Structure formats: structure tokens, C-alpha cells
Amino acid sequence: MDPAFFARPAAVVAADLIGHTLLVAGVGGIVVETEAYDREDPASHSFAGPTRRNASMFGPPGHAYVYRSYGLHWCLNLVCEPASAVLLRALEPTDGLDAMRARRGLSEPRLLCAGPGRLSQALAINLVQDGLPLDRPPFAWREPAAPVNVAAGTRIGISRGVETPWRFVLAGSRFVSKPLPRPRD
DNA sequence: CATTTGATGTCCT
DNA sequence: GGACATCAAATGC
Description:
By secondary structure, the protein is α+β, with helices and mostly antiparallel strands. It contains three helices and eight strands; from the N terminus they run H-E-E-E-E-E-H-H-E-E-E. It has a single domain, classed as 3-methyladenine DNA Glycosylase, Chain A (Roll), CATH 3.10.300.
């Protein structure tokens, strides 16, 4: 993955990432769900300025930002333009299924990485990875094998900025944490 | 199927 | 003290 890939607006990177494969220490899968957050976004951790927790978000693009959510889950973000990031919300598991199952307990493959907390548990993400560059081990990337059909919607689990359509999914994937709402007919 | 609940870190007022 | 980018298990249809 070219470091310049991340040095763009988070919403652009979030959409482009769909279909890429992410591996962490050889374990991972196809990115099927992302969300974008930026400095002007009231739902973003960077909205209120730098703190100890979100320091990585104010660092250089192309690095990881890991934070704890609801006191117990880890969430993996990819830092883009200054104070913006992409939250990885779901993968279609392809590599290291046994390691993921061991970390998550016996769980059906569809739920191994369907959600930011589950994904982080399956890939053994924690504060150790916070601030690490994404273009070097343990991180590895593969380009999409075929053209990707990306669908957009509103983000999940937030109470401010709810209208911003910065959630991106691989169209038709059954590995997302929650299906996109049906288009109005 | 939907809704509720408990787990409890970090930042905010 | 309250809010929060969550999850899994328990409960009520």
C-alpha cells in the first residue's frame, strides 16, 4: 500500500478501501465496511481537538489509531488527512481463520469480523498497534482482485452527525455488521 | 424477530 | 456524574 493512499480526505479513502485485503500478522480479510470521520465532524474523536487518547489521529497519515470503545472494545482506525480517519467496521475473513476463531471463541465465520469490536478482537488489535505505520509489518495489504461495487449510507452507533453518508460497504456482502437500509422506492 | 441489559475506559462538564 | 464510533446474552414476542 502506497503511503500516499492515506494522505487524502477520509471519505475518499474509506470508499477506496472497500475490496482491499488487510492482514495483521498474516490474519485478516477483505475490507467490506468502513466509516469516515474528520475534523469538522461532530461525531469524530478529533472534533474537540487533541487529547491523550486521540493523539495518533493528529499524527501523520498512513498510521493506525486504536482506541477503546464503551470501556471494553478496541477499534482500529486508519489516519488519513490531518485529524481525519477511517474506522474499519467489518472484514470478510480470508486468512488465519483458525487464529480468529481461537481469539473470538467458537463463532461462525460471518460474525468473526462483523463490527469494529469483533474485527479488532479477531485481529488481536490493541494499544500496541496505536500509531504504527500501515505500510510495514505487521500490516500488509492486497489490491482488490476485481472491480468493486461500493454502496454508501449513514453511519452506525453515533448520536451527532447522523445525516453524513460516510459509511461505505461492499455492495451485497453478507459480512457487514449491519445491512445498508433499503433504498426508498 | 425485537428490545433490554451489563460490562466499565476515557473524556467531558 | 454522564456520554460514548460496542457486543453478547437474556428475555419477550
